[in-house]
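Co-fold these.
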Amino acid sequence: MTIEILTELLHERKFAALIEALDEINAVDAAEFMATLSEEELPTVFRLLKKDTAAEIFAELPAMLQEQIVGSMSDKELSGVMEELFIDDAVDLLEEMPANVVSRILKTTSAERRKEINRFLKYPEDSVGSIMTSEWISIYSSLTVEEAVSYIRKTGIDKETVYVIYVTDARKTLVGIIELRDLLFAKSEDLISNLMQTSIISVKTTDDKETAATAISKYDLLALPVVDSENRLVGIVTVDDAVDVIQEEATEDIEMMAAITPTDKPYLQIGVFSTFLSRIPWLLILMLSATFTGTIITHYESALGQMVILTAFIPLLMNTGGNAGSQTSVTVIRGLSLGELRMGNILRILWKELRVSLLCGVVLAIVVFGKTILLDRASFSVSMVVALTVLATVIIAKLVGASLPILAKRLGFDPTVMASPFITTIVDAVALLIYFSIASAVLGI
Amino acid sequence: MTIEILTELLHERKFAALIEALDEINAVDAAEFMATLSEEELPTVFRLLKKDTAAEIFAELPAMLQEQIVGSMSDKELSGVMEELFIDDAVDLLEEMPANVVSRILKTTSAERRKEINRFLKYPEDSVGSIMTSEWISIYSSLTVEEAVSYIRKTGIDKETVYVIYVTDARKTLVGIIELRDLLFAKSEDLISNLMQTSIISVKTTDDKETAATAISKYDLLALPVVDSENRLVGIVTVDDAVDVIQEEATEDIEMMAAITPTDKPYLQIGVFSTFLSRIPWLLILMLSATFTGTIITHYESALGQMVILTAFIPLLMNTGGNAGSQTSVTVIRGLSLGELRMGNILRILWKELRVSLLCGVVLAIVVFGKTILLDRASFSVSMVVALTVLATVIIAKLVGASLPILAKRLGFDPTVMASPFITTIVDAVALLIYFSIASAVLGI
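Predicted complex below.
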């Protein structure tokens, strides 16, 4: 069912067919269609939708359109949508809306739901609490399979997942987990206490949301329980939310590696000024750090005045050093972030990088020597200087690229800031220092 | 249950307790423990495990240990493990093993399973076929809910998921999908044909595996059906495999952005020479491209000889241009890869980048002018030349950074190669050309 067909149904005013189609297709696609509607059409079509379909599609709309729809709804309609939304979607909505809309939404929400929403709004932005949901099924371990299934059928319909069921005691402590598939294949008189898994993987509300996503990915879970400090069950994180976190975190890492302050919105939805603000601090810092490199050149000004040909190789040396360093730093950063590398691996990493950098450095030095002497027609001694500088720079660049991210992590910083631009600035200075030292020694300038 | 406790049980030779513990904990953790065992202990402990637990743990072990275990097993034991493995894990195993082990494994496998494995081995490495599994449940639409549930209980126990059930006709054509949760909440006499969703999201075996992962992420699916060209169901991709693909693809993108040929193994498992091979081609290409920048400097050699102070600003100009360009190129590449940006957005992107680059450029130019004239004590005209070059370079860098990835995609290349290192090389040359042109005009050299 393409957007074109839905648009045709709308323009031919075949509303019954349109609503049926929107009900049938995936809410994500339905939301994409809704986003193409005019400001007048949107609330009209939305009002015709079935209550639960309406809530599902609403949760998938961009904030701007959610605001439009909220603005067009009566308090009663609004309250209906709020009760249908999953709690995490309701919280996301409130976080996106301007203050006056928030207060109107909260006014029309039932007291019980308002209390629940307020609890969720208090969790810090990147915590597990901020992505968990409170709609799970919990049962007692004393039930039989038959009793458990009948309980799930009665209470499960509005839960975010019914496939993972949590077993708690009277104090809400999480004592076990059972999957619906285990209930399906068990005998009806079996006791939950005999079937449940008691080796439980869980996270705390205050953990970083990446911890939850990593656990779900590592252990192939459909949902992960969230407990408080006394091991009482307070929420669950489902795999679909974990997938979103994994994608966001990868984007964030990539942005930080390119010296951009991460934002959590898609590119086209961010204003020019916000984009500017996310980029300018790093450009300024990195530009001013390059001053140091300039100082080195100024220091050797008279030498360069004598042999201007040395200047021609500065870009090549800086680029090669920067690229060699960022290859290593990016590899180490990604390894740290996927949990494949730890601080304890530092010696192994440095030893490996030393050997890799020797191989890379020797090959590059030979090629650059040939190029310099044959193509650039430089003298033997100048070609030697360039080749030796390439070799030394590549080795140092790779060792710096390997150590700095690990050092940053050790000091409690995000290792991602130690990616290409930062490494490049350091390696540039080092490359030039080596260059001029070798040049002074070999050429006697 | 930590690895230490398990090790203690092993050393105290409390095998019953150890086996029970390994059975209880997650297979990923159990595999981590098994990886700490000696070459003698590993097959001993493995042999004691229950058949299904053994298969689960085996699937999580690194290839080297799988090979060790296979080597220690009798043909009968091997055949037992192979029948217990999910088909996608069995295929992964064969792809990792050396030829002599593969032929031994295939010899001990039942004819039916061998046929199935061979079919899977034929799919290209990055295709949906290579990650799908053939263990799904399919039913006819004429069944009632009660009949369907009883069928699932009979046949579902060794299926990779029982939560999504596929409805096919006699020709195996996929006609509908129903979730186990819908069966749970339906009346036992309801017909599947009335309950199933008929609006189906599916992929083809030959699609890129990223397509499957993106669909699962976008539509929050637990499993995605894979069909052949005649819409017959041939496999499913489950959400846990999609999560792995998403993480691998992000790593691959990050590696390519840092000028590394992607590998699919963790850093510490790759040999020094393989790491060298994945890095050296790009270092060579980028080093040789920097020749062009050198040529520009050589061309202006006499001008630089007259005013050596101009040389001191070359690193600053090159770095700032490179950073500004890679901020934009990386943002656009990530947007393209997440599907947030399309070719059709190019004018919108360029218009936005033009405005952002003007803001960034003006701020950087003012700061660099102040720094040059006050700290570096350069003349007014030299400071003007540097500031104007920064402004022009930032604007051009951002426009180049935005266009090249889109152009690459348009021409059918992976836009990721147009990331930082490549953009930097181009922008370096542009920055120097601008610099010397402005310097010639303003300073008359």
